[in-house]
Automatic annotation (TrEMBL), chain A:
Primary role: Involved in beta-(1-->2)glucan export. Transmembrane domains (TMD) form a pore in the inner membrane and the ATP-binding domain (NBD) is responsible for energy generation.
One Pfam family here: ABC_tran
Gene Ontology biological-process entries: L-amino acid transport
CDD domains: ABC_TM1139_LivF_branched
Domain ABC transporter: 4-237
Family: Belongs to the ABC transporter superfamily.
PROSITE patterns to which the protein is assigned, alphabetical: ABC_TRANSPORTER_1, ABC_TRANSPORTER_2
Signal peptide range in chain numbering: none
Domain of life: Bacteria
UniProt GO molecular function: ATP binding; ATP hydrolysis activity; branched-chain amino acid transmembrane transporter activity
UniProt feature coiled coil, ranges: none
Protein name per UniProt: ABC transporter ATP-binding protein
Automatic annotation (TrEMBL), chain B:
Transmembrane segment boundaries: 12-35, 42-62, 68-90, 102-121, 141-167, 195-218, 277-296
Keywords noted in UniProt: Amino-acid transport, Cell membrane, Membrane, Transmembrane, Transmembrane helix, Transport
Record-level Gene Ontology MF annotations: transmembrane transporter activity
Keyword Transmembrane tagged: yes
Similarity section: Belongs to the binding-protein-dependent transport system permease family. LivHM subfamily.
Bilayer topology annotation: Multi-pass membrane protein
PANTHER family: AMINO ACID ABC TRANSPORTER PERMEASE PROTEIN (PTHR11795:SF445), BRANCHED-CHAIN AMINO ACID TRANSPORT SYSTEM PERMEASE PROTEIN LIVH (PTHR11795)
Gene Ontology CC: one annotated term: plasma membrane
Name this protein carries in UniProt: Branched-chain amino acid ABC transporter permease
Coiled coil: none
Example of a GO biological process term: amino acid transport
Location(s) in or outside the cell: Cell membrane
Entry superkingdom: Bacteria
Length: 240, 304
């Protein structure tokens, strides 16, 4: 069943067009990797779905309802949780407060305490420092915190923008282990923007390649890694 | 000793007034990066709301006749309503414009409110007597402290305590602090932008009403420009404290209040008329040393 459908959307920042007619579908429980070179429009795609940047044309549908032009808070309330690039922890708030910000919109209040315990069980390092200001955490710990914070909203789709950015390889492995486990446990649908295509291959799932605001390649992550066109898209030779 | 005690109480009560004003500005700045220069006119409006509209020199006291337990809630509601209306009618349309545009809009709104009051009440200051018994001094360790100073300090501390409890202990307080730090991220976590902003305006309006009540009781007059001075100093207090920081705004208010009183008490007699020049000089020194303010919030730091 299609959970999220993006149909032919175009996004422009002034005269600069960042996305040109992108169409994609994500089924419930699926993992979709979005990859491509810098400036291809990957983050713009996530921000457009989240309602942070308006789509100039085209439509976005979640769970059958048209959410084109809806506000970020309405889209979050429909179960789309975005972990943006650069992590964006609330540095002055404590770890526990960061985790609780997104629970205000939940209707199932009685489940919040249990979810908090399970996030702490998943990330014991957060539990030990729950009253510390989040700004004191290292980059890797902040990445764990924002994943935990997104989980606390009880999302149906979790979108993560460059989870490996600025992290040591060992920490990246840890982040992906957690994502794979969470997906299995919670039947979470994942939309991950990632530059490193090897991570995508290891995790499995589907992959799309964006370049110059267009989808240029689409397929199973494992097959695409072997495709010469992936390299071409990154390095630009051969197609013009 | 008694002179020192007197100075301490003067500093605390003046600082309280500035701290309440600075808080009203900082809360709104926190959630929408707007410096609301109409805040001073909100203060004056709340005072004039106690009078029946007339251009006579002697004020016709209207709501001011009510007993305090009705008058105070009524004025808080008036302050909150005016503030909420200004958000809905004016500031909402400037939500995503740059801060300078919003600031100019707030100047314009201030003009509109001031001239509305001019039309209804004329520019003549009016005398207004609220609770004359508060002017009587109380003896405290040998010093004569006006009752009103004690009341001002107590009200401010109580308002601060309620606000801190609200911000730290309630869901809406948490959402407000998150929104002040990163508005877009808070919205992506389901925090309603309009709700948080309206709440900030409502609290700010109630703080303006509280200042109006205190000012009217101290001065015994209602003057259309009575909020302007407090607004200016409160704005400077928020800058010293670090724009957007709530504890910074409170600290800034108390620091400026203390500085004025201490300069007043210690400057040589001939220099006292230039007290404000010394106060603003000290402000410049503080900003030269810490341009981001004393308690700059983390979110205000340049991100690399």
């Amino acid at each position: 069943m299609t959970l999220l459908a993006v149909d032919d959307i175009t996004v422009s920042y002034g005269r600069l067009t960042a996305l040109r007619g992108v169409t994609l579908k994500i089924a419930e429980g699926e993992v979709l990797f979005v990859t491509g070179p810098n400036g291809a429009g990957k983050s713009t795609l996530l921000n457009a779905i989240a309602g942070v940047v308006p789509a100039g044309s085209g439509s976005i549908t979640m769970d059958g309802a048209n959410v084109t032009g809806a506000s970020p808070e309405d889209i979050a309330r429909r179960g789309f949780s975005l972990v943006p690039e650069g992590r964006n922890v609330f540095g002055a708030l404590s770890i526990e407060e960061n985790l609780k910000v997104g629970t205000g919109m939940r209707a199932d209040r009685h489940k919040i305490a249990g979810d908090l315990d399970s996030v702490y069980a998943e990330f014991p390092m957060l539990a030990d420092r729950r009253h510390t200001a989040a700004g004191m955490l290292s980059g890797g710990q902040q990445q764990m915190l924002v994943i935990g914070r997104a989980l606390m909203t009880a999302p149906r789709i979790m979108a993560i923008d460059e989870p490996s950015l600025g992290l040591a390889p060992k920490i990246i492995d840890q982040v992906y282990e957690i994502l794979v486990r969470l997906r299995a446990q919670r039947k979470l649908t994942l939309l991950i923007v990632e530059q490193s295509s090897t991570r995508a291959m290891m995790t499995g799932g589907r992959m799309i390649l964006i370049r110059g605001g267009r989808i240029v390649l689409e397929g199973a992550a494992a097959d695409m890694i072997k495709d010469e066109r992936l390299k071409q898209a990154y390095f630009g030779f051969g197609d013009h | 000793m008694t002179a020192v005690l007197q100075i301490i109480f003067d500093a605390l009560s003046l600082g309280s007034l500035y701290a309440l004003g600075a808080l009203g500005i900082a809360l709104i700045f926190g959630v929408m990066r707007l410096v609301n220069f109409a805040h001073g006119d909100f203060i004056a409006f709340c005072v004039f709301a106690m009078l029946w509209p007339s251009i006579d020199a002697t004020a016709v006291v209207f709501a001011g006749m009510l007993p305090f337990y009705l008058l105070i809630p009524l004025l808080l509601i008036i302050g909150a309503t005016l503030s909420i209306l200004s958000e809905i009618v004016v500031f909402r349309r400037f939500r995503n414009t740059n801060p300078a545009t919003m600031m100019i809009a707030s100047f314009a709104l201030g003009f509109v409110i001031r001239h509305l009051m001019l039309m209804l009440y004329s520019s003549r200051p009016k005398s207004i007597t609220l609770w004359p018994s508060l002017g009587l001094p109380v003896d405290f360790l040998g010093a004569h402290i006006p009752m009103l100073q004690v009341v001002t300090i107590v009200i401010t501390l109580a308002a601060l305590a309620v606000l801190v409890l609200f911000l730290k202990r309630t869901r809406y307080g948490l959402e407000m602090r998150a929104a002040a730090e990163n508005f877009t991220m808070a919205r992506m976590l389901g925090v309603r932008a309009n709700g948080v902003i309206l709440l900030a305006f409502a609290i700010s309006g109630m703080l303006a009403a509280a200042i109006g009540l205190i000012l009217a009781t101290i001065s015994g007059t209602a003057d259309i420009n009575m909020g302007a001075n407090v607004m200016l100093i409160a704005f400077i207090a928020t800058v010293i404290g670090g724009l957007g920081s709530v504890p910074g705004a409170v600290a800034g208010g108390f620091i400026i209040g203390a500085a004025s009183v201490i300069f007043q008490a210690t400057l040589p007699h001939d220099a006292r008329v230039f007290r404000d020049a010394f106060v603003y000089g000290a402000v410049i020194v503080v900003l030269l040393v810490r341009p981001q303010g004393l308690f700059a919030p983390k979110s205000a730091k340049q991100r690399v």
